[in-house]
Design a protein that fits this description.
Length: 408
């Protein structure tokens, strides 16, 4: 049996090939971001804010152009009026769907917080309450169910097709851009005009291409995850085809006003600084995920993904199969976080989630999960979902100490 000490010896040497791949992607992303700043003439004047209605916010406009360019999209909404990723997804769905419409989800059950939005969990304000119907095709062996998708699309015309890439609190793998590209081509071969919407949370800047670059119409993500880099203190983005983005803007604000309104308050500089740091912060997060995977696998735990696997997102699972170990590990991460290190996380009910959840989030921004965070529902097989880290060294320190605490 390996000891933690023996595993940690020259650990960066052992993981060199994985870390090199991450660094190369980081360099490409860095280039992309700098190019977007230069092409859009980002200047100090864009750090100014608007208040009230937010008319003529040139900073907000340039922020949205930079994000659109980095993501390879026609346009983007980057707003602090989105209170979370779930809110941006909700506004997207309400913006694009009308009573009587059906939307088809082809990646299995969507993220838990969408249950009340869709109406999987009864709610008087759900899409279902507006007579908007959701149908679901599950993944098979961690890939799309091509047969079912084909059969469905030959006899139905859903208003949108929805794909969630990251696994949420499920046990499936997250969906790589190659798999996205393949299924989008397949859908367009059957029905070229399909509107494809992607929940891209946790996947930004992990791989070279974005879902829109491989044919999706809209993608959505949170700014207290990858693209905010721990600098944006709230918000989310919606990016893609400009006519659809504008429709979504009219739901976020007001029909007839759309993206023209919405005060940036103090967010413009942080949104710009966030995406500027995002390539490096995503790289740090990925290195911490790889390190965690390597150490825990070699100590005899089940992990997903493996340290040398191609990653679609920044999430690392540790499958503890043991309630006490899950709790102890999560507590170990909290105890080695910069904020509230003395708080002891305990499992509790959370709005939007079914099982009790234990959550370590010793972060500067509440709920931020691009900062090192670790959580999991208290149900078998007792999986920890760990993600983020603003720097590699802080992440390594926390993970090593959390492991020590479970080995005791
Ligand atoms: C984080 C996440 C969301 C949105 O979560 P918020 O906490 O509301 O920002 C949606 N889908 C997936 C897959 C996620 O990981």
């Amino acid at each position: 049996m390996n000891t933690l000490e023996s595993l940690l010896e020259d650990i960066e040497g052992k993981l060199k090939s994985q870390f090199d791949t991450i660094d190369r992607q980081c360099e490409k992303n860095t280039e992309k971001v700098l190019k977007a700043f230069k092409n859009n003439n980002v200047s100090e004047i864009h750090f100014n804010q608007t208040t009230g209605y937010g008319y003529n916010d040139i900073g907000r406009d340039v922020v949205e152009k930079v994000y659109a360019d980095v993501l390879g999209c026609e346009s983007a909404l980057v707003r602090n009026q989105f209170i979370s990723g779930t809110h941006a997804l909700t506004v997207t769905l309400f913006g694009l769907l009308r009573p009587g419409d059906t939307f088809l989800v082809i990646s299995g059950k969507p993220y838990d917080t969408l249950d009340s939005v869709i109406g999987i969990k009864e709610n008087e304000s759900s899409l279902k309450s507006f007579n908007i119907n959701c149908e679901q095709i599950d993944l098979v062996n961690n890939d799309f169910d091509y047969d079912k998708i084909e059969k469905y699309l030959k006899t139905n015309i859903p208003k949108i097709i929805y794909i969630q890439r990251s696994k949420g609190y499920s046990t499936r793998k997250s969906i790589t851009i190659d798999k996205m590209e393949k299924v989008i081509k397949f859908i367009r071969n059957i029905w070229n005009d399909a509107v494809i919407v992607v929940d891209n949370c946790y996947c930004e800047l992990v791989e070279d291409k974005t879902p829109v670059m491989v044919g999706a119409n809209i993608m959505v993500g949170s700014l207290i995850k990858n693209l905010g880099a721990g600098i944006s203190s709230n918000g989310a983005y919606v990016a893609g085809d400009s006519t659809l983005v504008e429709k979504i803007a009219e739901r976020l604000t007001v029909p007839g006003q759309g993206s023209e309104v919405g005060p940036s308050l103090n967010a413009n500089k942080d949104f710009l600084k966030g995406i500027y740091f995002a390539p490096s912060v995503v790289a740090s997060s990925l290195k911490v995920a790889v390190l965690t995977s390597y150490l825990l696998e070699n100590l005899g735990f089940n992990v997903e993904p493996k340290y040398n696997e191609l990653r679609a997102d920044i999430v690392q699972n540790i499958i503890f199969n043991d309630e006490k170990l899950l709790i102890k590990y999560v507590q170990g991460i909290q105890a080695n976080s910069p904020i509230d290190a003395n708080a002891l996380p305990i499992p509790s009910d959370m709005p939007g989630y079914d099982s009790q959840i234990i959550m370590a989030s010793g972060s500067f921004t509440q709920g931020s999960s691009i900062e090192l965070s670790c959580d999991g529902p208290l149900r078998a097989p007792y999986i920890a979902y760990q993600q983020g880290s603003l720097t590699y060294h802080y992440g390594k320190l926390a993970v090593v100490n959390a492991i020590k605490s479970i080995l005791k």
